[in-house]
Amino acid sequence: MTLPVHLYRYVFKAHVGPFLFSFVIITFILVMDIIFQIADLIIGKNLDLFIVLEVFFLNLAWIVAVSIPMSVLVASLMAFGRLSADNEVTALKAGGVSFFQMVSPVLVAGLLLGSGHLFFLDVILPEANYRARSLMNDIHRARPTLLFTGGIFMKDIPGYSILIDRVNPRNNEISGITIYETENLRYPRLMTAKSGEFHVNETGSRLDLMLYDGELLQQDESSGRYFKEIFERQRFTIRTEPAGVQRSEAGIRGDRELNIEMMQARIDEWQLDIDEASAIMESAPDAQETKADSLEAARDRAERTVSLRQRQKNSYIVEIHKKYAISAACFVFVLIGAPLGVRIRRGSIGVSVGVSLCFFLLYWACLLGGEELADRDMIDPVWAMWAANIVIGVPGAFLVWVIGRDRI
Questions:
Q1: What is the pTM of this model?
Q2: What are the C-alpha distances in Å from 69 to residues 44, 78, 93, 194, 325?
Q3: 3-class DSSP state of 152
Q4: How far is CA 240 from CA 132, 137, 217, 256, in A?
Q5: What are the φ/ψ torsions at residue 37 (nearest 5 degrees)?
Q6: Smallest Cα–Cα separation from 117: which of 398, 303, 333, 281?
Q7: What is the pLDDT along the chain (408 residues), one digit of tens a residue?
Q8: What does the alpha-carbon distance between residue 210 and residue 105 come to, in Å, rounded to a whole number?
């Protein structure tokens, strides 16, 4: 029996509401994390509101990429759980409609959504990641104190390398300060202090440091001798970038800032390097000892090249297939969500989100574990990325088959 068009629409519409609702809830939960991070970095630093909003929306891209597949899983559980609890699944089966026919419109929708999700992962997300990194770099240059993190060298201010042990952003107090001034490469200065405080002017063009209980070590330009100056209190001023955020490009793109075509082009380049290095490793030894030693050194370099390029290649193959695998999850999660929804027979958001979270954590653990093994060249990158879909999809397909065989 062919499922009438209006029943296709009915089953499909039963998923639209739960999908949109779960998408909003999941996105909101994930957004809370970046809101606190952005607030900790930006709020109170005299940045324009539009800059803050731009940072937020650029970071929202990866959240949307995660929320869509998970919302598909929640929607499938909720919709089929409600249909089962209201005995609509039983009524449709009694009317000669199989469970395969009930699931088919949702599977088609999952395929279409997965195709759109792949476009998002391949075109929109890499660009958003790149622009987010570029913007944060520009903000750091315009507001250098944003980079003050305990125990990490700050090198974004030209001519200075600054290390601060502890930073209190509430009152701008710092302790354990080391400043290495490199503007004069021939006669650099080293300044250390036990404590201090910093202040950035309103335009962000000057950073004032008041240092306490420290010492200054520098070399005299005339005699070439080093001398040390001990001070109790010392004001130190650093001129920074002009006022405002000056837009620039972040430079070379990382693997998560490239689309599939860009990554494939780099993989092809690295494969050429691997082929050339492999040819050197397989070359015949020379009879002369000096040439043999030179050839052995060349082989060692070639072996290191092959190892490096293979790891780089694997990491990009992983990223390519991760895009395909996560998008395919929009289809796979319907396979597992629909039969589980029928078995659970409840459409409540709490039960659906709880079950979905368990399967999503399993899926994500398989994905991250496979990525780690593939990066270490312990498993094929393709299998590593598709293993999560297989682990979830095969049991899901089996459950669909089992419920499809049930009479009523």
A1: 0.71
A2: 36, 14, 28, 51, 11
A3: strand
A4: 22, 14, 23, 30
A5: -65, -45
A6: 333
A7: 555 677 878 888 888 988 999 899 889 888 887 787 677 666 555 567 788 788 888 888 989 998 999 899 989 988 888 888 888 888 888 877 888 888 888 999 999 999 999 999 999 999 998 888 888 777 766 655 555 667 777 776 777 788 888 887 667 788 888 888 876 656 678 888 888 888 766 555 677 888 899 888 887 766 667 778 888 888 888 766 544 555 556 567 878 888 999 999 999 988 898 888 888 777 655 444 445 557 677 777 888 888 888 888 888 999 999 999 999 999 999 999 888 888 876 545 666 677 778 888 888 888 888 888 887 778 888 898 999 999 999 999 998 888 887 754
A8: 68
Cα–Cα distance, 77 to 287 (Å, whole number): 72
Measured in whole angstroms, the distance separating CA 67 from the mean position of its chain's CA atoms is: 14
- Return the amino acid letter for 264: Q
Amino acid type, 169:
P
**Alpha carbon separation from 350 to 347, 389, 400 (Å, rounded):** 9, 24, 23
Residue 218, helix vs strand vs coil: strand
For residue 234, the tally of other CB atoms under 10 A from its CB is 18
Q: Which of 131, 162, 129, 132 is nearest to 148 (CA)?
A: 162
Tokens at residue 215, please? Answer: 């010492």
